Each structure stands twice: as structure tokens, then as C-alpha cells.
Amino acid sequence: MRFPKLPMPERTWTRGLALLVVVAVVAAAGVAGYRMFTGLPDDAALKYHDDVITTSELDDRVDVLTALYGIQKPAGDKEKDKFERDVAKAVAVSLILDDAAKDRDIVISDKSARDTLASMVDNQLANSQKDFTALLAKFGIGEDDVLDEVKRQQAIALLFREVTKSDLDKLTADDVRAYYDQDPSRFATPEQRHLRNIVVATKRDANAVVAALRRGDDFRAVARTVSRDDATRDNGGDLGTVAQAELDPTFAEKAFAAKPGTVFGPVKTAYGWNVGQVVKVVPARQRPFAKIKDQVADTLRSERALEVWRDWLGDEIKDADVEYADDYRPEHPDEPPADAGVQARSAS
Q: What domains lie within the chain, and their CATH numbers?
């Protein structure tokens, strides 16, 4: 068992297709609620031009995300307030991007969207069309709603390329080399560690494991006897050689602070109480520019593209006619969302 950085809730549908359906539900609900007003009505969360999205429509969007991913509104008043303001801003930005794509005559054909959707269904669902039909029925939407969202994602990908292309075309070999020389450590292979791990139910059990190991009991034998981790128990708790970023942060902090050959723990994670052992340390290693110049170039292009995209999107947001209700006005309404660049790059 390798500890993921975030717990992944159990779900029947894979994240990609489920997220696609989520956004389709959002889009369908939003369009149904648009009304023409000369001012902001009492039940409005925001207005973009003459399109109003109500507070109940925003709540419906959160309900869908809760059903699929377990996303919940924070319990605290301060956190809940920020959450609702962030949701409102995300909706406003999505409307702005839709209009920007239209202004640039970005049009996605029905065939392109259907081919993409068919590939997703075939690759991600066991019984393809049957499971997909059940998924649509679960959320009360039609296939056309999903196709519209496929088109929207493809349009944003093309918009991202158009916005960033001219700046990326200006990059030179000297730019790439200078970018590497600024901080070569960014391209180093990080330190890795060969680890073993035992998972038990309680801290008391974990302390008993630690005591046994420090008496000289063989780690692998103890793991095969008591570990609750089905993935590694038969291998003596072997996690393999991993980087710190691959592990649950709490477990990783202890694992990468321990000395080679030592036992560490107990450490509590979402999976239980853990007792680990550092088998071997593989030091970080710097990689010469000549061997990774293509990777450096790709990293620089990606970074520059995100910078250009966020600058452009910031201008679009400032120029847009968005009005928020007081309870939904974000702290920085004229700035792009923190993850806007990452999302756009993922879409492309």
C-alpha cells in the first residue's frame, strides 16, 4: 500500500467521466435558471450580463459534487462563507470563458464531441453504454447535456492554445538554458527511500509492534503476521522505493526523517496506525542539462503558458459585467481563481 496524498473515496464511476457529468448537470441547471432582470433579485448569487444564477442553483451544484466526491460545505461559518464565495466566482469565470471562445469563433463539431465521449465511455465504464445510461438517469440529464460539456472542454482547450501560442513561439534555446541555470535543483531526481510498513488498528497494537521490532524480531515476519494492509502484507510490508511526494504527508514526514535501518512510528493515517522501517536511502541526484533539455523546455513552456493565460484571464474578468450579491462576493473578484491556469492546461 502506498499512501496517497489525498484520501480517495470509493466510487463506482471513474473521476474523468463522473466529473464530466457533474459539469453537465451544472450547465443544465444554470441555463434553466437564467432570467432577464434589470437589477439583482433577492435570491440571486450573481449576475453576468443579463443572466442570473440563484442561490438555490449554486446549492444544487454543490449537492451534485457531494453525491459524487463527498465534497461538503465546511462546518465553520467563516469557512462556509469562503466556500460559497469561491463557488460563485468559479461559475462566473466559466461563463466568461464560454463567451471568450464564442468571440474567437471557436466551434467544436458534433462529431468531435461524440467521438470523444464514445472513447471515454468505452475506456472508463465496464458495460459502456448500459452503465453510461444508468449514470445519466441517476442525475436526470440527457446525453446532449454531456455532449455540450465535452464541447465546452474542447473549446477551452483551443482557447488556451490560442491565447498562449504567440508568446510560446518566442521561446529560444537560450531561454531554456537560462531557465535551467536559474535553479538546476528543480530538475534533480528527489531523494527516494526503500520503505517497509505495517498497518494495525490501534495505537496500542502499533506500540506492541514497535517493541517487538526493537527486541530484534524480523520486520518482514511481523508484517506477514499482523499487518492489515492486504497489498503489502505478503511481501513483508514492502512499499518499494518511493519519493516523499508519493506518500501521505504525515507518514512521509516521519519516513524521511528517520535514519537508514531504523524503525519509526507509530504514525496515524487514514488507513490506521503505521509502523515503518527505512531499508535504504537513495540520495537526490542532479541531472545535467544536456540529458533533460527537452523536459526543461516543456516545463518552461508550461510555466510561461500558465502565466500568459492567467494574465489574459485576469483582464477578461476585470472587463466582464459580473455583479455578485453581498453574501457571495469573493474576496478578490477581479483575480483569476487560484487553480484556473492548471484547469485550463489540463483541458488542453
A: 15-169+301-347 (1.10.4030), 189-282 (3.10.50.40)
